[in-house]
Amino acid sequence: MPQPSALQSVDVGPSFDGSRRSFTEMPQIPLETVSVDLSYNEITPIPYGIFTNLYQCITLDLSHNRINFHSDEQFLLPGTLQQLDLSFNNIDYLPVVVCPDCTELNLAKNRISLVDNSVFYTIGRLQVLNLSFNNITTIQTFTFTTQNYLQKLLIDHNDITALLDNTFTGLTSCTELNLGYNRISRIENNVFSGMIALKTLHMNMNSVQNLNAGGFQGLDQCTFLFLNSNEISMLQSAAFVGLGELQGLSLANNEITSLPSGVFRPLSLCKELDLSYNNINALDKDDLGKLISLEKLWLHHNRITHLGADLFEGLLQCSYLNLSFNIIHTINENAFQGLNNVVSLDLHHNPVSYLPPNVFSPLRNCTDLFIGNTKVANLANDTFHGLYHLKILDLSNSKATIHGYPFVGLSNLLNLYLQNNSISSFSPDVFNSLGGLLWLDLSKNAIENVTIGSFCWLVETEFQQSKTMHLKDLKIY
Predict the structure, then answer these.
(1) Are the C-beta atoms of residues 146 and 169 closer than 8 Å to each other?
(2) How far apart are CA 174 and CA 160, in angstroms?
(3) What is the pLDDT of residues 235-265, one digit of tens each?
(4) 321 DSSP β-pair partners
(5) In the predicted model, is pLDDT for residue 466 greater than 70?
(6) pLDDT at 461
(7) Between vectors from CA 154 to CA 278 and to CA 55, what angle results, nearest 5°?
(8) Residue 385 to residues 41, 45, 312: CA-CA distances in angstroms?
């Protein structure tokens, strides 16, 4: 099949579709074209000023080519252009882009290593700038001083190691900044000052070790901050000063061992806090007590050993609490005071062996309780007192035995998981109060027989078909 020549006009009209045509040079484009698509070709050189005569052009897609620029080169574009896509090329040096009214510029997936502070000087109306998936190690200071319209800046998946003062000066309208997946190890004080409109800041997957006081000063409107998957081991007590509007904070997958007193004091509006996958070994009520708006708290996969009295007392709005995969040995009888709105509590995979009487009674709105894979040995009459709205109770894979009537009052329970425990017997009417139960798993226990009529309210017809009533490996549902 013959290849189209460099001067062949492919489509005539407002739109010019020259994608996937195996072009190696720029084709001839009608002057009245509004939208140009030259993606997925093999174009390497771009002749100087070749697009300037496209006086109606609004969008120009040059992605997935082999374009590169020489040093000190200018890239002249039509004054009408609003969207320019240069992603997936071989660009290692950014030219000065002359396009005063461009609002979206995509430079992702290139080989750019340096962002010079003169590159965007002639583009004054950018709203979206994508520099992700490059080799950027340095962003010169004052690079964005003319970008007071920019709303979204993506610089993730690069090799940036440090953020310096005045790096983001001028970004007064930016609402989203993504710096994730870099190698940033330190954050200078006031580096974000002036970003008065920023709502979301991604700093995940970096190498930040310490959060010093003043690092986030100036982010008065920031609502979501992602610092997960760094190397943070130390938090200063004033680390989050200036983040009074924050609603979501992720510090998951770091190396935090302790929480300094008052560290979360500025975060009175925070609704979600993720501290999972750290090395936190102790909690104090002063650590969490100022989070009066918190709704979800992730503390799983830490090294917490004890839950003290009134530990969560200030979390009046909390609806979800995950404490699984810790090494909790003891739980104070008043540990859950104040958690009146918790819907889901997860304590599974902890070595706790004793649950104090009425320990869960403050959780009057709880519907899901997970205590599986623990060492809880005795389920007594008052173990689950007060859990009137409970629907799911998981006590599987522990050492539990049933004494008395621990399930009295759980009339709304739908799923009860008791498999793989040490249950050998139970009172014939122990499950009688669970009239709405849909799933009961008693498999892999030491039950040898069961009194006729024990499950008459549940699945009596099924049990009448069984002659031995052997429940060792039986699921009843």
Answers:
(1) no
(2) 20
(3) 998 999 999 999 999 999 999 999 998 899 9
(4) 297, 345
(5) no
(6) 36
(7) 170
(8) 69, 76, 19
DSSP string for 9-27: ----SSEEE-TTS--SSPP
pLDDT-above-70 percentage for the chain: 91
**Domain range annotation of the chain:** 1-104, 388-396+411-477
How long a stretch of residues is the chain? 477
User: Do the beta carbons of residue 446 and residue 423 sit within 8 Å?
Assistant: yes
Residue 464's region, left for phi above 0, alpha for psi from -120 to 50, else beta, is alpha
CB 384 within 8 A of CB 406: yes
The closest of 459, 457, 454 to 428, measured between CA atoms, is 454
Reported in sequence order, the residue ranges of 120-205 that DSSP labels E, i.e. its strands, are 128-130, 138-139, 152-154, 162-163, 176-178, 186-187, 200-202
What does the block give as tokens for 275? 């501290």
Average pLDDT over residues 360-364: 95
| Beta strands at 439-441 and 475-476: parallel, antiparallel or unpaired | antiparallel
d(CA 141, CA 163): 9
What is the residue type of 297? L
Helices (H), 252-322: 285-288
Alpha-carbon distance of 220 to 223, in angstroms, equals 9
Residue 394: strand pairing partners:
370, 417
Separation of alpha carbons 4 and 43, rounded Å: 13
The pLDDT of 166-193, averaged and rounded, is: 92
Q: Which two tokens stand for residue 139?
A: 């962003």
Residues in a beta bridge with 187: 163
Beta carbons of 345 and 363 less than 8 angstroms apart: yes
Residue 325 predicted with pLDDT over 60: yes
Residue pLDDT, tens place only, 293-311: 999 999 999 999 999 999 9
Q: Left (φ > 0), alpha (ψ -120 to 50) or beta: where does 99 sit? A: beta
Separation between Cα atoms, residue 135 and residue 161, nearest integer Å: 11
387, 410 contact by CB (below 8 A): yes
Which residue in 342, 247, 334 sits closest to 323, CA to CA?
342
* pLDDT band at residue 457 using 50, 70 and 90 as cut-offs: low
- Phi and psi angles of residue 463, each rounded to the nearest 5 degrees, phi first: -70, -30
Query: What are the helix (H) ranges across 72-143?
Result: none
* Architecture of the domain defined by 1-104: Alpha-Beta Horseshoe (3.80)
24/35 Cα distance (integer angstroms):
20
Give the closest residue to 304 by CA, choosing from 362, 351, 344: 351
Tokens of 82: 């609003």
